[in-house]
Design brief:
93 residues; mainly beta; six-stranded antiparallel β-sheet; 1 helix; 4% helix; globular
């Protein structure tokens, strides 16, 4: 897991997806686009957030500290990378 200080580029509205681990059978999920500070050409990540994290609202330009896990999986002979946010906090400026 990597913990980094990042800038929020954008965030989608949460949607509810099926979940076997939740008693309601669904869990909120959203995507957040994060960029390393320093300029428009710095590294960017499209991450998913689930549960209570998906219900948090961040705005473009917010500085956050985020713990992310990077995973790779294969499906139908194609390789995908997933980045999941496990913890995220807005930094006060």
């Amino acid at each position: 897991m990597k913990t980094r200080i990042l800038k929020v580029v954008s965030q989608t509205e949460p949607v509810y997806v099926p979940s076997e681990s939740n008693t309601d059978g669904v869990v909120p999920k959203c995507e957040i686009r994060l960029q390393e500070p320093g300029g428009i050409y710095e590294e960017e990540y499209i991450c998913v957030m689930y549960g209570n994290l998906a219900l948090l609202k961040f705005y473009a330009g917010d500085l956050v500290v985020a713990s992310m896990r990077f995973r790779v999986h294969e499906k139908n002979d194609m390789v995908f990378q997933n980045v999941k946010v496990y913890d995220i906090h807005k930094l006060s400026c």
